[in-house]
Amino acid sequence: MPRVVPDQRSKFENEEFFRKLSRECEAFVATGTNLSLQFFPANLHGDQRQVPTREYVDFERESGRVYLKAPMILNGVCVIWKGWIDLQRLDGMGYLEYDDERAQHEDALAQAAFEEARRRTRDFEDRERSHREDLEVRDQGPTTIYVDY
Fold first, then answer.
1. Is residue 143 part of a domain?
2. How many Å separate Cα 128 from the centre of its chain?
3. Does residue 1 sit within a domain?
4. Where residue 107 sits, what CATH number does that domain have?
5. What start-end ranges are recorded for coiled-coil regions in this protein (predicted)?
6. What is the pTM (predicted TM-score) of this model?
7. Which of 37, 58, 75, 125 is the most exposed place for a label (fewest CB within 10 A)?
8. In which domain, by residue range, is 74 found?
């Protein structure tokens, strides 16, 4: 199952879900959407988590607020959630933005995976055909030729 859909931009621009969330709004939960934002999770190799830069978590931009940026794949589309949270009231605003750079990267990964699967299928079919041909030759048995003198 691919991580992203084939035409991410079209899905982002045309689906009501994304159109709603791409406008700055006070509460994603009002749309039934809850996001658990994780910044630089530990990777599969067990390396330590990275500390997010000010580009992703900014406490200094405005007093009493934290500005956040979180890239993710949502419903098969590469997006970035951008917004802020009031540190006293714990409310804020945010929106989704299409992540063109990551979308291109994920599309390239998906295409490479597709090509690899196609190559492996072709190799399997070639081996299978060769095996069938070998069996047919064996089933025919030795051929005897009679010659009259």
1. no
2. 33
3. yes
4. 2.40.250.10
5. none
6. 0.69
7. 125
8. 1-34+54-135
